Amino acid sequence: MGLLRGVRRSRTDVALVTERRFFDLDLGDDYSVREWAGDGRNRDSLRYLQGMRQRAPFRDVAPTELRDGTEYFHEDRAAEGLGTAYQVGGLAVSLPLGQMWEETLLRLIERGLAEDDAGSVALTETEVEVRHASRPEHVDEHQRWLCESELTRIHTGAELWAAREDIFPHLRFLPRVADDLLGLVPAWLRPVKDRLAELELATAEWAPSSEASPRWRSRVTPESETRKALCHFPDTDGATRLFDLHARFTPGAGRLHFRLDGARQQLVIAYIGAKLGWRRV
């Protein structure tokens, strides 16, 4: 359960897809999800799982063109679920029931039929790797991918604003930032996505109780004393606050201004655009 909660903190749009009907899954020898769900102590966990699960079995989730007869094997055993996770570029999850499930990358054998240049059909066998997690701490190994996998689908500032809560759960954006992103010049879209992804990952790893600030993945500095007057913005509660911490992006003097919110383990983003007080030409 902790594993799934960890994944969902990074990707709120995630769905749990299973091999067969949810209540018929086995959790161990002679113990099914149906029996587990019948224990009143698991009521809250069951409700959470039901909110995440995709009702269709995973063989119906992969695009039709991927269901082409290709088979996947792990440790010499058929591995349809692991193979589907690999095909759709997802994350395979399992119970930590043995040493083989302690790895965050699993090697699979992909077998299928392929036609060569001469028109002959032959059996092919290729080794591939699929992302995997069986414990909450494994999610940390996939944090960058969880963030960046969704960012590749973002092509405009408007899309970035619409997806912000799903992609950046540790970043909170002031309403005024919507206009910043809607007016973002095309050359700045990728670097802004890069900076936001780095800030998200750094804040996700931040421990406010023992660290004054996150461990930044790019250059972050406070504004100079002579320029701090430019960095005050009305916050979501109506109070005007200082947002002088900033990251940089290029081309030009791009700036992303924010403040720390240790109580929520978040950064509050107030401004994305040209260096304050400057006009981009």
Question: Explain this structure to me?
Answer:
The structure is a single chain. The protein is α+β, with helices and mostly antiparallel strands. It is 27% helix and 27% strand. It has nine helices and 16 strands. It has helices at residues 2-10, 33-37, 43-52, 80-87, 143-151, 157-162, 164-167, 177-182, 186-204, and strands spanning 16-17, 26-28, 31-32, 53-54, 71-74, 77-78, 91-93, 105-115, 121-133, 171-173, 220-221, 232-234, 240-242, 245-249, 254-261, 266-274. The strands form five sheets. A five-stranded mixed beta sheet has the order 6-5-8-9-7. The radius of gyration is 23 Å and the shape is globular. The chain starts with a helix and ends in a 7-residue tail after the last strand. The relative contact order is 0.10. The model has no long low-confidence stretch (mean pLDDT 81).
Tell me how many strands there are: 16
Distance linking N and C termini? 51 Å
Question: From N to C, what is the helix and strand string?
Answer: HEEEHHEEEHEEEHHHEHHEEEEEE
Largest sheet: 5 strands, mixed
Ranges with pLDDT <50 over ≥5 residues? none
- As laid out across the biggest beta sheet, the strand order is 6-5-8-9-7
- Our Rg estimate from Cα atoms comes to 23 Å
Q: In percent, how much strand structure appears in the residues?
A: 25-35%
Average residue-wise pLDDT: 81
Helix content: 25-40%
Specify the structural class: alpha+beta
Q: Given the structure, what is the number of helices?
A: 9
Instruction: Using the alpha-carbon principal axes, give the shape.
Output: globular
